[in-house]
């Protein structure tokens, strides 16, 4: 029993080392880059931590930012674990955001808030799921690679969202094309006495639920089987095409929920040409956590601190927010290398 | 027929060439990697580095040719990183591809911010090479046959790639590296080496594509300026299923769609840009739905090769 405990804690320590080691290396490499740019890395990191983590308003902004990011992460975990490369999250996100932004102010005039908000969340999820139907059917019944189709649908979706904002849902009262703004009072409730949007709760619940469904239930096992070996899954009598369509639906609905949460909780409206492109930045985070829900929460938190802190550092220290992109990229490469070295070490142990 | 004025047709053809060449180069590059079994999601990043490196050198030296060389070298540098990580060490190609794209976006935006953010310098239009006789065809002649040399080179590359794939030993090795790497290995050919060559050439093509965008198409470098062109290139390569001519056709189709906005404005028709921008993507989806055949991608695409692994 004692032995078991030591191996377990050793496994935990290893996991922590594997998560934190690359983070440390990436921050170090980032420090070198800052030095090359003539910026004091300690001052920069200090400022980012201060603004993104340690100041109350910064921490609240960080936690609010986490809501949509976590929902995107949940969307990706479902798809990736089932072996489906849904890279169309940005289009799904934006179309859902636009539908929620168009519906909410219109409905708020006629119905109570507690009814309007859930209805708009569901609407966003449904629109996104619908947007993924074509790639889903093509993949399930024609075997057409979903990387192509979801990317195509994302480009289409971004343009369609702009068309909708400029031509259909445009607020006539503003000069800049944007949808009507949802009054602050009608937005998603804030948590307790803070400015943190309850989108954070929705995101946390979604990630944990997705994690548990994928790892602890028969349904999750089916999906993972399809992901690991579609041929074997078909052989075992699983309805692979049906499951593929379902995975697309769930994944896109979660991405859509992210868009609706961002609009109903934080943005209040959608401006034309607004595209935060969260999806492609969250892909690496989900990989870093190896599709583990709890690990994902940690990485999303870290990324939110970096991006919120980085945004104020951009204004103050003149280091543009693009810097956090570089950090994420380095992090991915370092993690890949760490994994490679670990595998080689293990194989040497076996020989 | 009021729409099809000379000015409209000329600007449509010119726009299609300018928008199509980066897609052609990128698509041909991606096709080469995919043939050899490497899914190169980092294409966008290679193009972006090529665009920046090309712009900087063209700006410093004042010569477009040296800009193109720098762009090609920049693209190859990113490709070398990809070759080491994905081909030698066998890391996940999709993850590393996304990492390279994100990293390239961040690095070029930072470098641009440090050097050019306040000045936004602009390059002179590169010299064009007029092909005798052909360039004097009315309306479309100047748009097609009085272009910078790189445009002809890109089209020539289609023929070169067809020749390489059909008639050379390297072409067969590339195909085998994607279809059945173990067989290639058994035949005594270095799979890792073959794939490395493919990835490096992809970087070269993508770097040229990026340099074309900054040096010829716009004359400036703007952060994130490749704007999804790399991803369109990936799609073109996947749709073309190993045929270089289809990449050319696809690039022209996309190019025409992308340039339709400006051409329509020239003709005085006001169609929302966003609607026009949807055309090429809608076309691809339509083709997929109608043609609906099973995409025949190389069987070993996306998986790294390791000798003796089961």
What does this structure look like?
The complex is a heterodimer of chains A (351) and B (310). Chain A is mostly helical and 351 residues long. Chain A has a domain of 235 residues. Chain A is built from 14 helices and no strands. In chain A, helix 4 runs parallel beside helix 7, helix 4 crosses helix 11 and helix 12 runs parallel beside helix 14. Chain A is globular, with a radius of gyration of 21 Å. Chain B has 310 residues and is an all-alpha fold. Chain B has a single domain, classed as ABC transporter involved in vitamin B12 uptake, BtuC (Orthogonal Bundle). In chain B, 71% of the residues lie in helices and 1% in strands. Chain B has twelve helices and two strands. In chain B, helix 1 runs antiparallel to helix 9 and helix 1 crosses helix 10. The longest helix of chain B is centred in the N-terminal third of the chain and has 30 residues. The radius of gyration of chain B is 20 Å and the shape is globular. The interface between A and B is large, with 45 and 45 residues.
Largest sheet of chain A: none
Question: Share of helix among residues of chain A?
Answer: over 70%
Residue share in β-strands of chain B: under 5%
**Unreliable spans of chain B:** none
The name of the CATH topology of chain B is ABC transporter involved in vitamin B12 uptake, BtuC
Q: Tell me the fraction of residues in β-strands of chain A, as a range.
A: under 5%
User: What Rg of chain A is obtained from the alpha carbons, in whole angstroms?
Assistant: 21 Å
CATH class of chain B: Mainly Alpha
Largest interface: A-B, 45 and 45 residues
How far apart the termini of chain A lie comes to 28 Å
Categorize the overall geometry of chain B: globular
């Amino acid at each position: 029993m004692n032995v078991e405990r030591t191996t377990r804690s050793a496994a935990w320590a290893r996991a922590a080392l594997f998560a934190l080691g690359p983070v440390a290396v990436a921050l170090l490499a980032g420090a070198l880059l800052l030095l090359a740019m003539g910026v004091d890395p300690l001052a920069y990191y200090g400022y980012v931590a201060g603004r993104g983590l340690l100041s109350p308003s910064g921490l609240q902004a960080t936690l609010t930012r986490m809501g949509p990011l976590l929902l995107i992460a949940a969307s990706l975990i479902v798809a990736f674990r089932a072996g489906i490369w849904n890279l169309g999250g940005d289009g799904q996100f934006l179309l859902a955001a636009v539908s929620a932004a168009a519906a909410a102010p219109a409905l708020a005039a006629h119905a109570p808030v507690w009814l309007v908000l859930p209805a708009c969340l569901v609407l966003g999820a449904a629109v996104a799921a619908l947007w993924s139907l074509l790639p889903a059917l093509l993949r399930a019944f024609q075997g057409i690679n979903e990387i192509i189709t979801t990317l195509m649908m994302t480009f289409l979706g971004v343009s369609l969202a702009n068309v909708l904002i400029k031509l259909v849902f445009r607020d006539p009262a503003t000069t800049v094309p944007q949808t009507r703004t949802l009054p602050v009072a009608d937005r998603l409730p804030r948590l307790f006495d803070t400015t943190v949007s309850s989108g954070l709760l929705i995101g946390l619940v979604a990630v944990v639920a997705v994690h548990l469904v994928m790892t602890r239930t028969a349904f999750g096992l089916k999906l993972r089987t399809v992901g690991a070996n579609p041929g074997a899954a078909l052989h075992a009598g699983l309805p692979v095409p049906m499951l593929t369509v379902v995975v697309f639906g769930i994944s896109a609905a979660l991405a859509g929920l992210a868009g609706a949460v961002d609009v109903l909780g934080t943005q209040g409206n959608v401006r034309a040409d607004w595209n935060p492109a969260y999806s492609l930045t969250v892909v690496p985070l989900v990989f870093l956590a190896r599709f583990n829900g709890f690990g994902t929460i940690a990485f999303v938190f870290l990324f939110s601190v970096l991006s919120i802190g980085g945004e104020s550092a951009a204004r103050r220290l003149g280091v543009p927010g693009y810097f956090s992109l570089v950090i994420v990229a380095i992090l991915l490469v370092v993690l890949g290398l760490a994994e490679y070295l670990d595998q080689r070490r293990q194989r040497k142990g076996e020989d | 027929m009021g729409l099809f004025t000379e000015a409209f047709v000329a600007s449509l053809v010119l726009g299609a060439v300018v928008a199509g060449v980066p897609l052609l180069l990128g698509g041909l590059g991606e096709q080469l990697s995919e043939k050899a079994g490497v899914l190169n999601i980092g294409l966008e990043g290679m193009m972006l580095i090529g665009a920046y490196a090309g712009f900087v050198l063209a700006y410093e030296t004042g010569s477009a040719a040296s800009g193109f060389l720098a762009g090609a070298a920049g693209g190859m540098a990113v490709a070398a990183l990809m070759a080491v990580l994905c081909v030698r060490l066998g890391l996940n190609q999709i993850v590393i591809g996304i990492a390279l794209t994100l990293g390239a976006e961040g690095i070029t935006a930072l470098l641009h911010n440090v050097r050019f953010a306040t000045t936004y310098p602009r390059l002179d239009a590169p010299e064009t090479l007029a092909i005798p006789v052909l360039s004097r065809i009315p309306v479309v002649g100047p748009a097609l046959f009085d272009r910078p040399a790189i445009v002809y080179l890109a089209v020539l590359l289609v023929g070169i790639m067809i020749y390489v794939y059909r008639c050379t030993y390297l072409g067969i090795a590339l195909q085998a590296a994607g279809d059945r790497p173990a067989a290639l290995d058994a035949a005594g050919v270095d799979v890792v080496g073959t794939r490395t060559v493919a990835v490096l050439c992809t970087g070269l093509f993508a770097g040229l594509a990026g340099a074309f965008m900054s040096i010829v198409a716009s004359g400036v470098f703007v952060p994130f300026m490749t704007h999804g062109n790399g991803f369109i290139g990936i799609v073109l390569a996947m749709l073309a299923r190993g045929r270089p001519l289809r990449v050319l056709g696809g690039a022209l189709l996309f190019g025409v769609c992308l340039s339709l906005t400006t051409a329509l404005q020239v003709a005085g028709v006001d169609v929302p840009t966003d609607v026009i921008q949807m055309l090429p993507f809608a076309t691809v989806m339509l083709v997929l739905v109608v043609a609906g055949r099973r995409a025949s991608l190389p069987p070993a695409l996306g998986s790294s090769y390791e000798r003796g692994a089961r």
